[in-house]
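Why do we care about 3D structure at all? Because function follows from shape, and shape follows, mostly, from sequence. That is the central idea of this module. The next example makes it concrete: a single protein chain, its amino acid sequence, and then its structure expressed as tokens.
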Amino acid sequence: MAMLRRGWPLPLGAITRNRRSYVALPNLVDLLLAVCDHPAAANQVFLVSDGEDLSTADLLRRLAGAMGRPAHLWAVQIALHKLGAMILWRHDIAQRLLADLRVDISKTMRLLGWGPLVTVEKGFGLAVKGKPQ
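And the structure:
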């Protein structure tokens, strides 16, 4: 967030095919409260997200938008990211940056009748302001 706020150019504009799930604090709290009261929640495992998966580039653009700033993203090819990580012996960073990390909340929605209260944009807005609600 600090780099986006300062307007630094980031070489992440080409990372558009991965998908990540995010969860805003109000959505997490709401699900926890729902699980405490719902009879179908006993002995179940539930996943939570804001209901929209984003690529790394999309995340940065929307987060910058929540700050009222443009995202300055360079489209550096994914192969170069992988090569750089390999040279630096940091495969873990490349994996976290380039791979998918999605959760399926359909069971949560179906069994509990739950859905995210807060959109991705609203969640990013809250994160930028540093306020949980």
